[in-house]
Amino acid sequence: MFFALKRTLAVNAPWLFKQTTPSISIRNLSSENMHTELLGRLSEGFLYAFNSIADAYESQDIDLLSQCLEPNLFKHVSNSFTSLSSEGYKFTKLSEVSPNLSLANMQLTLGVYIDRTQNLKKSEYYMVKSVEDFKKVIPLEFLKRQLKKDSFGIDEDILNSCMDYACMYILPKAPANLILAIDAVYSTEPILTLEKDGKDQVYDGNKDKEIHTLRFESEPVKLGFQKEIIGIGNYDKIFEELKKQRHQFYDNPWIVTDIDNTMQGNPYAL
User: Fold this and answer.
1) How far apart are CA 147 and CA 137, in angstroms?
2) Cystine design at 269: which of 2, 82, 122, 206 (Cβ 3.0–4.6 Å)?
3) Is the sign of the CA dihedral 63, 116, 268, 72 positive or negative?
4) Coil, strand or helix at 218
5) Residue 83 and residue 86: Cα distance in Å, rounded?
6) Cα angle vertex 48, ends 44, 52, to 5°?
7) Between the CA of residue 93 and those of 46, 54, 87, 194, what are the distances in Å?
8) Residue ranges per domain, the chain?
9) Are strands 199-200 and 255-259 parallel, antiparallel or unpaired?
């Protein structure tokens, strides 16, 4: 991702400066109640992650970034640091900020790992990306009915929204992991700049509010491999396992898989 510096120089950096609109398409969550519930559960951690990443950019804390970024994203960020340093640039924090946070683009994905390096080529999977195709694998109404009946503690609006934007990578030897992805959108005063020879290379003094985005992903459910649990008549087994793990739906560790869309969404498989 490129941005223009004051001196008409182009630099490749894993952070967008002076971005006043989201760098991704926004699909709002389906209800205000859902947005409020998720913010209550996730905002503290997501705000902490934003500030921690900014701190790590300034200090080039590779160890911290390797723990909180998906491996492909981490490789991109690490390579960018090396490239920027070779040209004399470094990230510098401008100030501590308290961003306004909103959430968007919730999606559930089955059949892949968060770590993209563990996934196969896209051509090796049978893809299910629409509600109609989803019904051919697991009837949608059955899925909704089971989840509601089993009292997973998930708001109905959240459930319906997730099912409408579910995606499955079907392959017997692929995992039956369920990945929950959410985009966090931050409206904030500028927190980072790039310096060279001790001089700010981005801002002239006018620092309007910026929009930054982080994509977070978690694996609330891990059910082994698809060949072991997915098949005609095995729906009850799936939901027995889901019930055992329902309390982990929001509480598993979250990994950042994209920053300001610099990875173009960081697809699970190419």
Assistant:
1) 16
2) 122
3) positive
4) strand
5) 5
6) 175
7) 19, 7, 19, 9
8) 2-259
9) unpaired
Sign (positive or negative) of CA dihedral 39, 41, 42, 48: positive
167 within 8 A of 122, measured Cβ to Cβ = no
Measured between its terminal Cα atoms, the distance across the chain in Å is 19
Dig out the tokens for 208 from the structure. Answer: 């309007």
The residue whose two tokens read 């196969």 is: 120
pLDDT of residue 3: 46
Categorize the per-residue pLDDT at 239 as very low, low, confident or very high, splitting at 50, 70 and 90.
low
Q: Within a 13 Å sphere around the CA of 76, how many CA atoms are in the beta-carbon half?
A: 21
| pTM across the whole model | 0.84
Spatial CA neighbour of 58 closest among 13, 97, 91: 91
Instruction: For residue 3, list its beta bridge partners.
Output: 11
Q: Is the pLDDT of residue 21 over 90?
A: yes
Both tokens of 41, joined, read 């559960």
Identify whether the C-beta of residue 152 lies closer than 8 Å to the C-beta of residue 158.
Answer: no
Residue 167, pLDDT above cutoff 60: yes
Burial class (CB in 10 A: 0-12, 13-18, 19+), 175: buried
